[in-house]
Amino acid sequence: MLNVFQGCDASVLLDDTPSFSGEKTAGPNLNSLRGFEVIDNIKADLEYACPQTVSCADILSIAARDSVVLSGGLGWQVQMGRKDSLTASKTAANNNIPGPNSNVATLVTNFQNLGLSLQDMVTLSGAHTIGKARCATFSSRLNNNNAGVSNSEMNLDFLQSLQQLCSANNNSTLANLDDMTPSTFDNHYYVNLLLGKGLLVSDQVLATGDDDNTREIVQNYVDDPSMFLEDFKNSMLKMGSLPPPTGTNGEIRVNCRVIN
């Protein structure tokens, strides 16, 4: 659940209400973000043991860390104490989360707007070593309608397998973001990019786009898997230290789906 606009303030967990449309139905999130019931269960257990003590924002941060560790990555000390947002913005999520067809310049701008560097962008993109994406998000890869990446740079066997997977015209069909080791947190995401097997345009441009800096980082992570794991830990710490837009005006929700 890294696709959140307002930072680690649990805005993405809020369900729609009569007064606003939440971020769950934003284009980058709809039918892609999953596992909300897992957060619900964790929150329920914590509320039973320590009522209104651990925020949903902190639960998300800890769950992100633990999922990386359980999948083979390195752990880090999660910075605790964030408050939960009192609202969410579907419009802001649509406008500020980079789309799956983004080029390097767009990706860099979106990350820099949050105080994160080009290096952080390439490193945090490595989270795509686990997870899945809908056919709708990479359809341009199948039809050669994408800017910045040509299908001539795409592995032919990989392309044919995706075309077959998505041939039923079901845009909700899921494909692994990393088809080599889809459940392991490792550097194979970057290996895939050099093989022309990046699922999303925004993945593949890191290796075969027009930016030598991103290509160099990808190559470094292919050559040195431990460098990626260490850098990912550090970039997650950096992202976790960004000031939340809610400041001190948030709350600790009792139910992560609704404000108190």
TrEMBL record:
One Pfam entry name: peroxidase
Entry binding sites for heme b: H128
Cofactors that this protein relies on: heme b; Ca(2+)
UniProt signal peptide: none
Manner of cofactor binding, per the entry note: Binds 1 heme b (iron(II)-protoporphyrin IX) group per subunit. Binds 2 calcium ions per subunit.
Residue sites binding Ca(2+) 1 per the record: G7, D9, S11, E23
Domain of life: Eukaryota
Disulfide bond annotation, renumbered to this chain: C56-C256, C135-C166
One BP term from GO: response to oxidative stress
InterPro entries: Haem_peroxidase, Haem_peroxidase_sf, Peroxidase_pln, Peroxidases_heam-ligand_BS, Secretory_peroxidase
Catalytic reaction list: 2 a phenolic donor + H2O2 = 2 a phenolic radical donor + 2 H2O
Name the UniProt record assigns to this protein: peroxidase
Organism: Solanum commersonii
